[in-house]
Structure formats: structure tokens, C-alpha cells
Amino acid sequence: MPKATPEARLREDDDMMQSHDFGFGTQIRKSPFFDATVRWGAQGFSVYNHMYIPRDFGDPEQNFWNLVTDAILCDVAVERQVEITGPDAAIFTQMLTCRDLSTMAVGQCKYVLITNAEGGILNDPILLKLGQNHFWLSLADSDILLWAQGVAVHSGLDVSIREPDVSPLQLQGPKSGDIMQALFGDEIMDLRYYWFIETELDGIPLIVSRTGWSSELGYEIYLRDSSFGDSLWERIMAVGMPMGLKPGHTSSIRRIEGGMLSYHADADIHTNPFELGLDRLVNLDMEAEFIGKFALQRIRDNGVARKQVGLIIDGDPMTGPNTAFWTVNHEGEAVGKVTSAVYSPRLRKNIALAMVAVEAAELGTDLIVVTHSGETTATVVERPFFDPRKQLAASSAAVPLQVNG
Hints:
six-stranded mixed β-sheet; six-stranded antiparallel beta barrel; globular
């Protein structure tokens, strides 16, 4: 029997992984980079926005160190885009978010919250302004395409809402700037934090932004034609590997260190911006109306009953992130829950984000956390846990940058 070629073995291994390890069926979509990530060592996937996302390239602690010392390339095509166009696109986009967009420039990105009529958070996307009436919402994990299309039906506004053929990659880490400079030339170093440019690489149409879900220096590369997925991944890896680039996945360790939210974990439809300390994203004094404005005014005036806090959890290092919401007790009463927790090898501490009653939210408060292995003590601390001013994400060796996300 002839010996199988490496390519044939790869296809066989890929088929086995799809049937045994993934097994979600054809209703879960694959990104344009899926095959490349399998070739480059992806060992496990989860589902986000009805798509596979790589979540395992081996040791998650090594993935963290790759990110914070060198650079990693991540398939985040699951960050689907909702494209809003038409004569009333600017008015409609403002209707969706509580953040004031009146001064937003073409080429700028903003971190925004999508709220419902009760002030609950439906999504916390990055908004990109491609034209005066042309926007993308780069989504967290929820169906804002359907929400936006539903809102448009009875809005009386002339807008078109669709999901374009756009799939992002994230190139993150302290060496990402050098890699981008090698790929795109010196001009890319002038790109400011939370701004983007339209460009191409070897004829591949792209948008490149100075954003990312890592709290490190980084870029998001939005592929605008899925047929180039394999070519784009291989091109970036070929240029970046001599500089230390590794394939990787978004790091739970680093995002919790940075206090970054994960939708469905740290926020959901029942969470409002004031509970998360995101008052800066709520502009209630602007003239424009948006969904949830009156509810958020009432919440602001009445105050909140709970707040998100940072916790240091005592005990042995956790072996992975929490997979359940752990109860938080104070003076014998349940006062909240841990939403995200992990061991930080850099800080050498178990760190967590938690939602607790306001009376238990003061810095220095001692709490009890009921983990999967029993009760342990914890203390309320400042968040983010590392680089609170996001100087790493906004840094550049070439030019000083404005932090305006």
C-alpha cells in the first residue's frame, strides 16, 4: 500500500478532527482562516457568533507569554460585522448606542455599547466609520444583525443593514508593530490607537485598525474577500515568524488582567453600563435619542445595587479559567458572583472579575468565594490588574498616540 503523502495525512487528520473533536455540524460556520489554523496547530475550538473560533494551540500559559513578550496571530473572524449604510445610516447608528458619535471622524473606531429599552447591554462592539453614512459594528458574541434589522423595520429611516464578507485577524503583542512595518511599510507606524486605514497586501483588500482584544500593542486586519483567507494567514506568518510571531488564540489571562469584558460572562442583557463602571460610554445629555436613553437616565439618578469589581482570590494557582459563575459571600450572605477568573503567571495571583452588591464593593473588602473545590477567601482590589492606563496597547516606538477608544 503506497505511503500517504503529508498532504493526504493532513486531510485525514483534519477530517478526523472535524468529526471527533469539533462535531457541531454544518450549522456552525468556518472562518476563511479555519484550515490554516488547523495546519498551524489548532487543537480545539469553541463557538462564537455561530462560528468556530480556535481556543487551543497547546499550553494557554505559553500562549500568554507569546503574546506579552513577542506576538501572536489570532483568527477572530467570529467578530462578525454589521454593516449600516444608506442616507440615514449615521442617525440610525446613533440610535443603537448610548455613546455620542457626533464628533466621530471617518477612519476612526470607537468602543460602544448597544443597549435595549431597559438599558441592558446587548453587545459591546467596536464601531468603525468608513464614510459619513457607512459604518461597521465589529461584534462581540450576540445577534446584533437581527436586532439592527428589526429596529430598522419601524424606524422610518432609510438604511440598509447586512453582514458583509469581512473577517478579522488579530496581530497582537509588543512585536506586532515591527511585523506590520515589514508587511505594510513605514506608513503603518503613523496609524493612531483606535483609528484605521483601507489598504491592501499583495492585492488582498483589507482594513487595518489599531485595536484588539488583548490589552497589548496590536492591530486588527479585516479581510474583505474570504477567498484570500489562506493566503493572508500564510503571508503574515511567513513575515512574522523570524520576529517571534506564533499562531495563537485570544488570551483569557491577558484580557482578565486588562479588565476587558467577555459578553455572556461579564455582561449580558441584564447588565447596565453603570454597574460596569462604563459611565464614560453613556452620554445622556446629548440631543440625539437612542434606545434605552430614558431607562439609563433613571438608573443614573437612582443609582445601582451592584457593581463590577476586581478580586484577588487566595489559594493555590487555578489550573484554568472558571467554567461556572462562582457564588460570592459576604458576612454569611450571598452578594454576587465571580464572572471571570484565572491564574496570572505574571502577577502570580488568582485574579477575577465579579459582580457584587454595592455594600461589598469597597476596595479592601474581604469576601468568600465558593469555587468548584470549596470556599476560599478573596479581596476586592482595583481593576484592571495590570497596566491600568492601557499604555501598552496605545504605545508605539514611532509616534506618540492618542488614547481615545
